[in-house]
Amino acid sequence: MGERQDGFEQWLQERTNRRHPLDTVPVDVMPHGNIPNTPLAASVISFLLGALFSLGVALFLHGSFAYPWWATYRLGFFLAAWSIFHWGEFAVTAGWNKEKCSVDSFLLDNGATYHVANGSALVEYLITLYFLPSLKEFRYVSQLGLTLAIGGQMLRTAAMIHASTNFSHSVAFRKRQSHMLVTDGVYAWSRHPSYAGFFYWALGTQLVLQNPACFIGFAIVLWRFFCRRIKVEERALVQFFGEDYNVYRRRVGTGIPFIP
User: Fold this and answer.
1) CA geometry: angle at 167 spanning 162 and 169, to 5°?
2) Which residues, 6 or more positions from 170, have their beta carbon under 8 angstroms from its beta carbon?
3) Residues 6 or more apart in contact with residue 254 via CB below 8 angstroms
4) Which of 75, 103, 210, 225 has the fewest beta carbons under 10 Å from its own?
């Protein structure tokens, strides 16, 4: 009887410790904890982002003919681009970098500043559209923004997929045994294609909305952020890869203006 009990307890312990395929527990960085790191939370967030994306696509396709006044193709594109960006961050991490995947991979817990910035973009757009709608009629500006935002999204996604497990949403200060220096693919023309992709994606969304104030604000804030982050990250990369990274850095730029 005692042996059967011991065997049952061992089986129960193994079952408790066994990692479920749906679990998202990153190996190197603990989730922030502000959003529950559970499959339920991930599914709810995906559903809400999908609903927002559908609304955005509907507005984009029919906004020019729709009522009320705020239902424009420009707003539709912004909502669709924002939602697909955040869903894509999680989806690509889950598909190509699962060991680092968690609910934080949606990048929805980016701090108050990020959400204030996007909220400000909506406020500027809607206020200007209501009081001065003629300032939102430069269609070629929105077309340029569409190109920039879509191109930026494609660049960032390609960078994450190509780097695979070598990519991380947070700066790594400890070199893992499997960490490799990626210098081919999109990394052959930009040392930080994921940063460059986000930079152009964000500016593109503000061109679509024809938001001059937020476009300038986004450009300044993002440039300063990436300038500082790249300096910190590359100090760690030099420690990881030594002269190999110095050679790569001299040969390939960042892809962001005025950040060598």
Assistant:
1) 135
2) 29
3) 190, 191, 192, 195, 196, 226, 230, 260
4) 225
DSSP the chain: -HHHHHHHHHHHHHHHHSPPTT----SSS---SSS--SHHHHHHHHHHHHHHHHHHHHHHHHGGG-SSTT--HHHHHHHHHHHHHHHHHHHHHHHH-GGG-SGGGG---S-HHHHHHHHHHHHHHHHHHHH-GGGG--HHHHHHHHHHHHHHHHHHHHHHHHHGGG--SS---S--TT-----SGGGGT-S-HHHHHHHHHHHHHHHHHT-HHHHHHHHHHHHHHHHHHHHHHHHHHHHHHTHHHHHHHHH---SSTT--
Structure tokens at 42: 């991930």
C-alpha dihedral sign at 252, 184, 91, 234:
negative
Which tops the pLDDT comparison, 53 or 1? 53
Structure tokens at 158: 């390609």
Q: What pLDDT band is residue 21 in, cutting at 50, 70 and 90?
A: low
> Average pLDDT, whole number, for the chain?
91
Q: Which amino acid is at 134?
A: S
52 pLDDT higher than 50: yes
